[in-house]
Write a structure and sequence with these properties.
By secondary structure, the protein is α/β, with parallel strands linked by helices. The protein contains 13 helices and 14 strands. It folds into two domains: 10-15 and 266-376, Aspartate Aminotransferase, domain 1 (Alpha-Beta Complex); 21-263, Type I PLP-dependent aspartate aminotransferase-like (Major domain) (Aspartate Aminotransferase, domain 2).
Length: 379
């Protein structure tokens, strides 16, 4: 069997992301039984370190859902939106829309409140919608991967809770890259994943389940099997997963979370991500015609979106800049496809993305931005 020539690309996309060599090698740690006491050696510290990263204690129970972030999001919908209830989704981009689509595909009575690309949630508009619709559940995105916009979780949850609704939060592309303070957030369930800011391969959706959510899930019917929070919680309290996990990924997760918490340090990790956001801002300011897409104060610390001058086409970004950087050993992100197609059709400037999450360093980012600037100046 002939082997394909796999290119050793440095990933500056928004997920999956760069994985350190030592984290890759952690997959070679001994395999184990997921119902055996060996499992505790991995999963007890995993759950402890997840709580430390989230800024919570026993008030939230971490669960690992086999799959991805969307698996955890679907679990929140199926377990926490009862038959006959309304879920309002608040969207600031493509992944906000995904939460709405998940609800609809599960037969839930759902409505989508959309904000323009690049905007954060307007709390006054949200409050007006809550008064009008009176939903029982509201979902929204902490960090919108398609636009690089970050929402204020605590402020949004406060408005939602004020109107008697339960907040579900998608934190897939920011968890592990910015402070969360989950215990003070007001969220009922917070969903994230391994393959973004944690710097791990894809394979687990991660859910942080509050006691309020647990109590409601016990009353909701037709949750399915793998989307049933109550079943996940029963195993999680034994430091286990509901079904057989990828034990190589469990080994990597044990190693990486220990390294983040006890070697790099949580605050240092968050500060590094914030510094890289500043790097991109400074870089963009020095290139004529380009500007940051998200408004100041609402820019993600884990990924940046940059607006191109009018006239730059999607084909140029994909076939010119992206392929030019591939030749240099990098994988560039030419922007979220559906969003850029809509912007192009509307005659608006296109957007490309720079992922700087997980274990990417400021030095790695600086090298990449230099190469990216060379390709952009060819347009």
């Amino acid at each position: 069997m002939s082997k394909p020539n796999f290119a050793p690309l440095k990933l500056f996309i928004t997920g999956p992301t760069y994985i350190r060599q030592d984290v890759k090698e952690a997959a070679l740690l001994p395999e184990f039984g997921h119902r055996d006491t060996e499992n505790d050696l991995r999963c007890v510290p995993i759950r402890e370190n997840l709580r430390k990263l989230a800024g919570c204690g026993d008030d939230f129970e971490p669960i690992l859902c086999l799959g991805s972030g969307s698996t955890a999001m679907e679990t929140s919908v199926r377990s926490l939106v009862a038959d006959g209830e309304t879920i309002l989704n608040v969207s600031v981009g493509a992944f906000g829309d995904m939460y709405y689509n998940i609800a609809v595909s599960n037969g839930k009575k759902a409505e989508n409140l959309k904000f323009d690309y690049g905007q954060a949630i307007d709390l006054n508009v949200l409050e007006d919608k809550l008064r009008e619709l009176k939903p029982e559940v509201v979902s929204f995105t902490h960090n919108e991967t398609s636009t690089g916009v970050v929402n204020d979780v605590k402020a949004v949850c406060e408005v939602i809770c004020k109107h008697g609704a339960m907040p579900l939060v998608d934190g897939v592309s920011i968890f592990g890259g910015a402070p969360l303070d989950l215990s003070e957030s007001g969220a009922a369930m917070y969903s994230t994943a391994t393959q973004k800011s944690l710097g791990l391969p894809a394979g687990f959706g991660i859910g942080f389940v509050s006691k309020e959510a647990e109590e409601k899930a016990a009353k909701v019917t037709n949750k399915g099997h793998h989307h049933d929070i109550t079943k996940h919680l029963d195993k999680a309290r034994k430091n286990q997963t509901l079904t057989t996990p990828n034990t190589c990924l469990v080994n990597q997760m044990w190693y990486q979370l220990d390294r983040i918490v006890n070697e790099e340090g949580i605050e240092n990790r968050f500060a590094r991500h914030a510094a890289m956001r500043g790097q991109v801002e400074q870089w963009v300011a020095g290139i004529d015609g380009y500007e940051m897409f998200a408004a100041e104060g609402y820019r993600s610390p884990t990924l940046s979106t940059v607006r191109c001058p009018k006239g730059v086409t999607l084909a140029q970004l994909k076939n010119g800049v992206k392929e030019g950087l591939r030749d240099e050993g990098y994988l560039m992100d030419p922007g979220y496809g559906k969003m850029n197609a809509a912007l192009e059709e509307a005659g608006r400037g296109l957007v490309f993305r720079v992922g700087h999450m997980g274990d990417i360093t400021p030095e790695m980012l600086a090298e990449y931005l230099d190469k990216l600037e060379v390709e952009l100046k060819k347009l």
